[in-house]
Amino acid sequence: MLNRLFGYFSHDIGIDLGTANTLVYVKGKGIVINEPSVVALNIKTKQILAIGEEAKKMVGRTPANIVASRPLVDGVVSDFEVTEIMLKYFIDKVHKESFVLFPRPRVVVGIPSGVTEVEKRAVEDAAKNAGAREAYLVEEPMAAAIGARLPIQEAAGTMVVDIGGGTTEVAVISLGGVVSARSIRIAGDELNEDIIQYARDEFNLLLGERTAEDIKIAIGSAYPLEKKLEAIMRGRDLVTGLPKAIPVDSDQIRQALAKSVNILIDAIKITIEETPPELVADIMEQGMFLAGGGALLKGLDQLITLTTKMAVHIANDPLTCVVRGTGLILEDLDSLRGVLVPTNYNAPR
Ligand code: ADP
Ligand code: MG
To answer: Are the C-beta atoms of residues 222 and 298 closer than 8 Å to each other?
Structure first.
């Protein structure tokens, strides 16, 4: 009863704590925050200078004593201090706006499925320290499937591939649980790296990370495009040290990305191989679903179809699937409690 009253007044929060972007959903309001998971801090004083959008602008532009760090990418525990600060900043930003007398929010956080027990504990503690009344964790592919409104509770196989910045998560879900899964550290960031490497090897051109990402989004592809696209890579000549601009086309960039894209496809194939045949039959019927920003790489769906012989669908608005999933869990915590990651706070007692 008290809980129901609390639920009515409190601004329960769903968070997609992604390696590239953090999104926050507030019950009854929708998505209120969508910012890069970046924190700029002074490494000597440990002072936080900026978080989110503002911090991302500093990437590659900081003096020696300042780092713009992405605390979730490297997965080292020391970075979890920074994760906590970032999480607290985003929760505060939302909670402050609500009436002070409102009870503290319940928080559902989507986390990569590859994280360790220590890391789970750290995220949970971070949410609690940041003011959550109750903190729940859900694995990203599960949240993505819920966000895409796939029938995860049914006795049928549902396959989701969530391609983020730092990790790609492949999962087959049935009866509200993950049946087979794989998490690899090849995703959007690695594709950016491939483009940087390509420019260096072929043209002695040093590209910045953001430039490489822009090129990837503009002309990157996994499968030959109907019409070839072109772009200009701007960077620094490694020989002369001077600025240099080199034109490239989508065929060249596709070759640069091919190795990583193939690793990603292998992860999908291996997950299918490890899935019980009845569920594979279901997936063949329904097709698999792509979520996360990497799902938008041109022609990736086509290449996966070609190599796995399965239909591939790109989830609606793939970048917001996970956070919308956490929102749906908040709306219906009673029937979706089973999909949460068991933790100290919410484990069945
Ligand atoms: P995470 O969940 O790890 O925070 P996101 O799901 O937010 O990651 O996806 C971020 C990744 O998606 C980045 O690597 C970004 O470059 C990539 N991305 C975004 N849009 C596109 C696009 N149109 N084409 C290819 N990659 C994209
Ligand atoms: Mg994600």
So the answer is: yes
Ligand 1 in reach of 17 Cβ (< 6 A): no
SS3 of residue 261 by DSSP? helix
- In terms of DSSP bridges, do strands 106-111 and 134-139 run parallel, antiparallel, or are they unpaired? parallel
Beta strand 21-26 pairing with 13-17: antiparallel
Q: Is the pLDDT of residue 76 over 70?
A: no
Residues in the chain: 349
**What's residue 349's pLDDT?**
39
Rounded Cα distance, 293 and 6, in Å: 35
Ligand 1, residue 37: give the atom nearest the CA: 4
pLDDT tens sequence across 77-134? 457 788 888 888 888 888 776 655 567 889 999 988 777 888 888 889 888 888 888 9
Mean pLDDT of 187-200: 98
- Interval 248-298: pLDDT, tens: 999 999 999 999 999 999 999 999 999 999 999 999 999 999 999 999 999
> What is residue 195's three-state secondary structure?
helix
Contact in structure between 195 and 215 (CB atoms under 8 Å)? yes
Name the closest-CA residue to atom 7, ligand 1.
Answer: 21
- Strands of the chain, DSSP E: 13-17, 21-26, 30-36, 39-42, 48-51, 66-69, 106-111, 134-139, 158-163, 168-174, 177-184, 205-206, 230-237, 243-249, 288-291, 312-314
Give, as residue ranges, everything with CB less than 5 Å from ion ligand 2. Answer: 18, 164, 292
Does ligand 1 lie within 6 Å of residue 327's CB atom? no
CA distances from 20 to 38, 52, 69, 138, 260 (A): 8, 10, 11, 18, 18
One-letter amino acid at 279 equals: L
Farthest CA pair distance, the chain: 72
How do beta strands 66-69 and 39-42 pair? antiparallel
Mutate which of 296, 301, 322 for ligand 1 pocket (most atoms within 8 A of beta carbon): 296
